[in-house]
Amino acid sequence: MNVFDIAGRAMSAQLVRLNTTASNLANAGSVSGTEAGAFRALKPIFRAVGDQPGVATVQVDSVIASNTPATRRHEPNHPMADKNGDVWEAGVDSTAEMVEMIEAARQYQNNVQVLETAKSLTLDTLRIGK
Amino acid sequence: MMAEDALFGIHGTALALRSQRLTMLASNIANAATPNYKARDIDFKTAMGLAQQGSDTASAIRYRLPVQTSLDGNTVELPTEQTAFAENAVQYRTTLAFLDSRIASITRALKGE
């Protein structure tokens, strides 16, 4: 596994993270008539994969629903309210999602930087002796 | 890994090690968000010594000691890794420059200039 595989696959993983964050934020205000039916924030699970010591890229193992509880709101006039007059708002912590988004974007950028450096070093090596 | 070369001295070996270190530091940066990932680096001096004897350099790999531990067991500290990565890239270029000027002088000698 070379540096291009490592950075490239890490970028895909960060992109999955960014996509789940976007979907979490998009669903942040959604309501449901039951607690079980409420949307739960999705989280990608990262795992290091490597074939040699010290050399590993990252892979998204799975995307699981988080434990963030849905918020109960008493809103008897809501069309989806249950018999107690409650609706359940999606279990999404918007602030945490925003932080996650910035972190994913930064880490994506770091990998782009790694790729750029590796590319320029490889090209310089090819030009050696010319 | 090869022992010292008659034409290029230690620089061929150094370049291979620099490239190996580049991959390792890239791995650390790639795994900045992986739970339980332990950052690793090459102890360059030890690796160079092993490479010059013609032995395997795998035993020169060390775990990074983090300044601050994180809750998820990840020991990647991006500032440290990015500094090491930039430093290693400059050192790679330095080795390339040594090789380049060595090739230039050998070529001059061959041409009888």
Automatic annotation (TrEMBL), chain B:
Matches recorded under PANTHER family: FLAGELLAR BASAL BODY ROD PROTEIN FLGB, FLAGELLAR PROTEIN
The name this protein goes by in its record: Flagellar basal body rod protein FlgB
GO biological processes: bacterial-type flagellum-dependent swarming motility
Predominant place of localization: other
Key words, A-Z: Bacterial flagellum, Cell projection, Cilium, Flagellum, Plasmid
Keyword Transcription included in the entry's annotation: no
PROSITE patterns for this protein: FLAGELLA_BB_ROD
Compartment(s) where it occurs, according to its Swiss-Prot or TrEMBL record: Bacterial flagellum basal body
Pfam families recorded: Flg_bb_rod
Complex and partners: The basal body constitutes a major portion of the flagellar organelle and consists of a number of rings mounted on a central rod. In Gram-negative bacteria, at least four rings, L, P, S and M are present, whereas Gram-positive bacteria lack the L and P rings. The rod consists of about 26 subunits of FlgG in the distal portion, and FlgB, FlgC and FlgF build up the proximal portion of the rod with about 6 subunits each.
Family that this chain belongs to: Belongs to the flagella basal body rod proteins family.
Domain Flagellar basal body rod protein N-terminal: start-end pairs: 10-38
GO cellular component, one term: bacterial-type flagellum basal body, rod
Gene this chain is encoded by: flgB
Function description: Structural component of flagellum, the bacterial motility apparatus. Part of the rod structure of flagellar basal body.
